[in-house]
Amino acid sequence: MNADEHEHVLPDSGTEVVSVVRGTLAELDALAVLFDAYRQFYGHPADLEAARAYLEARMRGDESVVLLAMNAGLPVGFSQLYPSFCSLDLSRIFVLYDLFVDPSARRLGVARSLLAAAEQHGRAAGASRLELSTAWSNTAAQALYEADGWMPDSTYRHYELPLLPPAVSAG
Questions:
Q1: Would you give the distance in Å from CA 102 to the centre of its chain?
Q2: Distance, CA of 90 to CA of 68 (rounded, Å)
Q3: Is the model's pLDDT at 57 over the cut of 80?
Q4: Does the residue 130 lie in any domain?
Q5: What is the reported pTM?
Q6: Which range marks the domain in which residue 42 is found?
Q7: Which carries the bigger pLDDT value, residue 89 or residue 16?
Q8: What are phi and psi of 8, to 5 degrees?
């Protein structure tokens, strides 16, 4: 197993294994399906072509690290890390921006495997930390993050300045 691959035995499965690999253009079609489902989960209209184009641009430009979780040879989840920097710590960091598990594979340890692979990637790249944001209402994800050692930021408050109008939902 190379540094870009990570395996976890699924809880209560005995033998089933989730493998997480760094996504390449060879897996782009499978990643695009998961990415499109992720966007739909957050209320955006289905657009497989746009999802594929977005991921392809990020991957070709080496602008993100996409991790793909496989179970029994099937793609079941992904996460996407964006490289960034921390001026105060004078270090590289990664923003874990996207994490999605197909509904058929939830509660099997896939998200935990993706988080572990993201941590492994960050450590290997010499990053000082990983960061993520999640919806206040996403308590299931918050419980997982905190169980895995992620800490809520109690020092800084997150703000954003919208530069484009919100996307129009088809639903």
A1: 12
A2: 30
A3: yes
A4: yes
A5: 0.85
A6: 5-147
A7: 89
A8: -140, 135
